[in-house]
Design a protein that fits this description.
elongated; two-stranded antiparallel ribbon; single chain; about 170 residues; 6 helices
Length: about 170
């Protein structure tokens, strides 16, 4: 498998998304046995069902966006033409944005878990820590990649070691 077709999917699918899906599964299993103060099974309540749907949508959106970028990258480099500076900036922006989506999703599960999610060894707590660490990496830092993408859209010079050095004339060629 070529490096360009597997790099993003490895980091996100196995680590960030994998942790998040593990947390979702653990939450669903836990909700099957827990009851609220009114005696209702938590999994039978509308608010919990909506939260689970929201989390699943966040994870599906992140995975879909990342896999779309992996496919575009494979086509671009597989054809020998590569990607434009703007297209590369879009991919990096999407990586950072997807990390934020995944972190929001896991945070929502942690909140829903109440005090259970605070126990050491809890799957949701572990996912929250792992994903939280992942979003602080420079490769998923929204403040960096959102700005790079904005510069690319504006046709400005881009100079960063993690992306390359591109004068405005090159950026504007899209």
């Amino acid at each position: 498998t070529p490096l360009y077709s597997s790099a993003a999917s490895d980091v996100y699918k196995r680590q960030l998304l994998g942790s998040a899906y593990t947390a979702l599964d653990a939450t669903i299993a836990r909700l099957d046995t827990r009851r609220n103060l009114l005696g209702e099974k938590l999994g039978d309540t509308q608010s919990v069902q909506l939260r689970l749907a929201d989390v699943a949508a966040h994870l599906d959106a992140a995975e879909t966006l990342l896999l779309r970028d992996v496919a575009r990258t494979a086509v671009g480099y597989g054809s020998g033409r590569g990607l434009s500076v703007v297209d590369r900036a879009v991919c990096r922006r999407n990586q950072a944005y997807c990390a934020q989506l995944v972190f929001e999703a896991v945070g929502s599960l942690l909140y829903r878990g109440g005090a259970h999610g605070l126990r050491e060894g809890d799957a949701v707590q572990r996912a929250y820590r792992d994903v939280g660490a992942g979003v602080t990496h420079v490769g998923t830092d929204w403040d960096v990649w959102g700005r790079i993408h904005g510069k690319a859209l504006m046709g400005h010079d881009i100079a960063t070691p993690n992306f390359g050095f591109h004068p405005a004339e090159v950026v504007r060629t899209r």
